[in-house]
Design brief:
The chain is mainly beta and 521 residues long. The protein has four domains: 111 residues, Sandwich (Jelly Rolls); 143 residues, Jelly Rolls; 148 residues, Sandwich (Jelly Rolls); 57 residues. The protein is built from one helix and 29 strands. Strands 9, 11, 12, 14, 17 and 19 form a six-stranded antiparallel beta sheet that branches. The chain is globular, with a radius of gyration of 27 Å.
Length: 521
């Protein structure tokens, strides 16, 4: 309902699938023939992928006499916002063409592009890498190296069955085979990112990883500055099975730097370490399971498996023009500029569902899940319109569902969750009647790990020896710093013969005194 150039008064190109078209609808937009180039060029554009049933948008290059090469791709809804896409077009020794290719999965939503440009020189490093098109210029070093692979439906292969991005066997990821016959114990392979620019506020690194095998080895993450200073920012050495788990850490650097993933062999006969969906954002890292949806979805994601999910939750605010219906204000900011997640019930067919899943949460004896919902549905048929699941490989038990009539205000919900194994929280919106209209929205999800909804701490014993050792080490470190500071103050006072408060100075005064010093550096 609005373009990117003039914010509503200009034009764009878009693809929309009508409800009469049964199969996936493809559309290709091809540039005129481009002359060969000897240098890098930055190809930039803005895209808008919004709606509960969106397909994929891809950028390809076709060089004369060669097969098409996929350069960049995105799938699913990206919210009611124009987002910048870009990719460095390497030197082309022959005439070539650039191609936008869109595939619409359903008839609710559209894919659009606007403001296409080409600038000389390479683009900046990608802040998001799903590894679907390529390795995003990540390079590998070591004995065998990291491999760019797709999922494998075979059960005997030593690799993830599906990737994290698409949840299919066709999706790609980066894999380090840490089996003893491939990577000897204690030997390592590195995966190194392109150069990243520093940020005064730091960046939040988020990535999904899978570590399978009895002793899969170690996965370490480093930030290496151009000064060769290298800091370890994250590490794990325990297997996660065939589950994709989310990791996040704040990285602070003063100079240009590179992100390094290190996989170390653990000596298992069959084991692997894989990573997918690496994101570097100039924001604070969210807490586990929490999100206010102001900037993005944090660790939450739509289910892409068509066997479980028919439509997607979407992201918008009340101020931005939207074809789909949601609340006028969010809960976080309480105004039309604040963002939330929602499902337009009218966009669903009868018995269709939309799933929104959290990252994997650790086992707990009692943790409080808090969220706000805003439901406005015709006919007051609220029962079961929104359900919250303790989601595992299958759907798992329902831990909360709507039962009362809707309200025009945001309503809070508190649920104490218990689990003896890792799990996810799933929000499921469902349309039970084809004539229903309205929307379901959620906002401000908070997960208080280890504290139930009565404020009682429950999980001290589950935190493990690493947590206790970390606490002890932290206390020891603080005490050492305090002692060092006191000794430094005493030394400085003795050296300069300065009176402490409560003692007589040479002038006979007590308490504070004027001091002068010289910077000897």
């Amino acid at each position: 309902m609005y373009d990117h150039t003039l914010n509503g008064k200009g034009y764009y190109l878009f693809v929309y699938k009508s409800s009469a078209e049964v199969n996936d609808t493809g559309a290709r937009l091809t540039s005129i023939l481009q002359t060969s180039t000897s240098t890098n060029q930055c190809f930039s554009f803005w895209y808008h992928m919004y709606g509960p049933d969106i397909g994929t948008l891809s950028l390809k290059v076709l060089q004369q006499g060669q097969a098409e090469e996929l350069l960049w791709t995105r799938a699913g809804t990206h919210g009611n916002q124009w987002r910048r896409g870009f990719h460095t077009i390497p030197p082309q020794n022959k005439h070539f063409q650039l191609i936008f290719e869109a595939f619409q999965r359903g008839s609710t939503g559209a894919i659009a592009i606007d403001d296409v440009s080409v600038v000389g020189g390479a683009c900046e490093a990608q802040g998001i890498c799903s590894f679907e098109a390529n390795t995003c210029q990540y390079t590998s070093t070591g004995m065998q190296g990291w491999e760019w692979l797709a999922g494998d439906p075979g059960t005997s292969s030593n690799r993830p069955v599906t990737d994290h991005t698409t949840e299919t066997t066709e999706g790609h990821y980066m894999l380090a085979d840490t089996s003893l016959g491939v990577l000897p114990s204690s030997q390592s392979v590195l995966l190194v990112s392109p150069v990243q620019e520093p940020s005064d506020a730091g960046v939040c690194l988020q990535f999904w990883f899978q570590m399978n095998g009895e002793t899969p080895g170690d996965l370490n993450v480093y930030a290496e500055e151009e000064t060769q200073e290298k800091q370890k920012v994250w590490s794990i050495n325990t297997g996660q099975g065939l589950t994709w788990s989310l990791a996040r850490v704040k990285i602070q650097t003063a100079h240009n730097w590179k992100l390094i993933f290190e996989a170390i062999g653990g000596g298992a006969a069959m084991s692997h370490i894989a990573i997918d969906d690496v994101t570097l954002s100039h924001t604070e890292c969210p807490s586990i399971g929490a999100c206010d949806f102001e900037l993005d979805l944090c660790g939450w994601k739509n289910v892409l498996n068509p066997k479980l999910d028919s439509k997607d939750w979407d992201w918008t605010n009340g101020q931005t023009p939207s074809y789909f219906k949601g609340p006028k204000v969010d809960h976080t900011l309480g105004n039309s500029q604040g963002h939330y997640m929602f499902v337009d019930i009218e966009a669903l067919n009868a018995d269709e569902t939309a799933w929104l899943l959290s990252e994997h949460l650790p086992l707990t004896k009692g943790s409080c899940l808090t969220f706000y919902h805003h439901i406005n549905i015709s006919k007051q048929l609220l029962h079961g319109a929104l359900k919250v699941f303790q989601y595992r490989a299958d759907q798992g038990p329902v831990i909360w569902e709507t039962k009362e009539w809707h309200s025009s205000e945001w309503q809070s919900v508190n649920i104490t969750v218990e689990s003896s194994d890792n799990f996810q929280v799933g929000f499921k919106a469902m349309k039970s009647d084809s004539t229903l209209l309205g929307y379901i929205a959620i906002d401000d999800i908070v997960y208080h790990h280890g504290v139930n909804c009565h404020g009682v701490r429950t999980d001290e014993a589950l935190l493990g020896s690493n947590y206790i050792a970390g606490m002890v080490a932290g206390v020891v470190t603080v005490l050492a710093l305090v002692m060092f500071l006191l000794l430094g103050i005493i030394y400085w006072v003795m050296k300069n013969r300065i009176s402490l408060p409560g003692t007589a100075s040479e002038s006979g005064q007590h308490g504070f005194d004027n001091l002068s010093y010289r910077n000897r550096n």
